[in-house]
Design a protein that fits this description.
alpha+beta, Alpha-Beta Plaits, four-stranded antiparallel beta sheet, 4 strands, globular
Length: 95
């Protein structure tokens, strides 16, 4: 019988999701800050963040390749106490 992983990780892809971001920071400033922090791991195609109630405190960073996104997840510590609230989570976007 095949062994089932109770907590399967989503497959790696080019997009990482970050939540618990500081909602008081203006969207343009948040995007620039996230780009500055995560660009050390590879070329970023886009940073998505919105001010709608449903999407507050969340962002998606889309890298040019999977390796860059993997490195960002593996090596990024909390980008900044100003940007990140407690219990920040980062993971690959399923899809």
């Amino acid at each position: 019988m095949a062994e089932v992983n109770a907590n399967p990780e989503p497959p790696q892809n080019m997009t990482i999701y970050i939540n618990n971001l500081n909602e008081k920071i203006k969207i343009d400033e948040l995007k620039k800050s996230l780009h500055a922090v995560f660009s050390q791991f590879g070329k970023i195609l886009e940073v998505l963040a919105f001010k709608t109630l449903k999407h507050k405190g969340q962002a998606w960073v889309i890298f040019e390749d999977v390796t860059s996104a993997s490195n960002a997840l593996r090596h990024a510590s909390s980008p900044s106490p100003t940007l990140i609230e407690q219990n920040r989570k980062m993971f690959f976007l399923e899809g």
